[in-house]
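Title: Prediction job returns without error message
Component: structure pipeline
Severity: low
Priority: P3
Assignee: unassigned

Description:
Job completed but the reporter wants confirmation the result is attached to the right record. Sequence as submitted:
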Amino acid sequence: MDLRVVGLENPFFSALHQMLQDPHIPQDEEGPTRTYVRDAKAMASTPADIKEYPTKYVFEVDMPGIRSADIKVQVEDDKVLVISGERKREEDKEAKYVRMERRVGKFMRKFSLPENANVDAISAVCQDGVLAVTVEKLPPPEPKKPKTIEVKVV
């Protein structure tokens, strides 16, 4: 079903629809588990840019108002980069909220790393509300030299 037809062009709905079509989704009798839907929502609400340079990949994720202590950058199975954390709301007992629009809660993104990613050379820097995770590339393999085989005369 094309979600644009019903006006659901939001990235969250697109990601959720894609995940619901996946036969590997953990399901109970009523559909996807709550944990799975929560994780799908967290992934869809965390946009990212990925840049490729000659010697590295850079993953940029907006993290306004999030302390670096609340951000986790991990590598799973030597091939999946996971950026996760939680945005918390500061409680102000004197104030009464008139409107609350800023997102709070957990966020997460997973990225499959290319074959030439060096998982031992990853760094992360958060500056001006943007997290930049740099993954260095492995050097290209040296081309194999042709092997010369001596031909014997019999």
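Comment from assignee: result matches the submitted record. The radius of gyration is 22 Å.
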